[in-house]
Amino acid sequence: KKGTFYTPRPIVHYMCRESLKEYLCSSTSVPRYKVLKLVEEEKIKDLSFSEVKSLYDALKTVRILDPAVGSGAFLVGMMQEIIRLRKPLGEKLGIKLTSAQFKRGIIKSNLYGIDIEPEAIEIAKLRLWLSLVVDEELKEVKPLPNLDYKLCRGNSLIESFQGKNIF
Description:
single chain; 5 strands; 9% strand; two-stranded antiparallel ribbon
């Protein structure tokens, strides 16, 4: 009735990896076969230092928008994929962050979502917070970064705005 659908985890996993492959191929000069080995197999031994830096920087600055965020499954899946790739790249660059530090940075800088249902936005915020809290010590749990401008209620399927055709 509301257009709400459950997306199975393997589908989310596939969408995230395919999106990252295309993004990394188009935003870096790293050869496609090396990007595919990184995303599919986490192979970094064939990457030069400059390729590792380029890929790490691209993953650090990527902006991900889910135009129908729902419960946030795609954003959480994308966060996990970015961490999975950034950790070994970072280690090769001498950057060592905890999972909580990676997650906090990704939530703060990389993830955006829109949904027409206000409840979906709240569920997505909660899901991101829970994914962060599981990696922090209970005594050291910090507030979630302000997500009010990152996860917003809205209709991403509109064709016009203030009387002007978007397309």
